[in-house]
Amino acid sequence: MNIRTLALAALLLGGCGGEAGNEAEQAQGNAAAAPAAAADGNEAAAPGGTADRVLKSETVEAVFDQWEMGDYLWAHLNVEGREQEGAFVGPTPIEHFLEAHRGQPITVRIDTVMMDIPEAGGAEEVQKIAAASAGGVSAAQWWAGLSAEERAAAERRMEELLSGGSGLETDPHG
């Protein structure tokens, strides 16, 4: 089970907005949301199942400190000289990497994208963490280096977070 599936389950069980009749449509859109890189590397699947259009990209040093759950899971990043900002998390295993490196300096590529967000009524400009690394090791390399037990533990930790465990804020408007 991946994080997007868990986020969907948390939304459906938690009743985070939306009408009951609309939840099945949201479930279908969210189930298709697992981001995957497009052939040119410039677009990825969005929550609504369509490709994001990258408007700009920047690589920054940041510290991940918490999750926020509204209609989707957002990561809060602290970047020196900026207000704390939330960002949608790109392809798996970035969410696991962020959680494992909580409170530590990391390098992230933040894409500003036009993303189809059905719950917001269509295309929205959002920040998205499209890549992450620490000490020259990317999130994908880090994940590949984990044992099956470590990966299972990382999945359990995300399940715990999504079920209201410590380290998760909920958005009262989501």
Describe this structure in words.
The protein is globular, with a radius of gyration of 15 Å. The protein has one domain. The model is unreliable at 1-46 and 170-174 (pLDDT under 50). Strands 1-2-3-5-4 form a five-stranded mixed barrel. The protein contains five helices and seven strands, in the order ααβββαβββααβ. It has helices at 3-14, 20-31, 94-100, 139-144, 148-162; strands spanning 53-69, 73-78, 85-89, 105-117, 122-134, 137-138, 168-170. The protein has 174 residues and is of the alpha+beta class.
Give the helix/strand layout.
Blueprint: H1 3-14, H2 20-31, E1 53-69, E2 73-78, E3 85-89, H3 94-100, E4 105-117, E5 122-134, E6 137-138, H4 139-144, H5 148-162, E7 168-170
Parallel strand pairs: 1-7, 3-5
Antiparallel strand pairs: 1-2, 1-4, 2-3, 4-5, 5-6
Percent of residues in helices: 25-40%
Average pLDDT score: 74
**How many structurally independent domains?**
1
The counted number of beta strands is 7
- Derived structural class: alpha+beta
Q: Give the topology string: H per helix, E per strand.
A: HHEEEHEEEHHE
The global form is globular
Determine the strand fraction and express it as a percent band.
25-35%
Distance between the termini: 23 Å
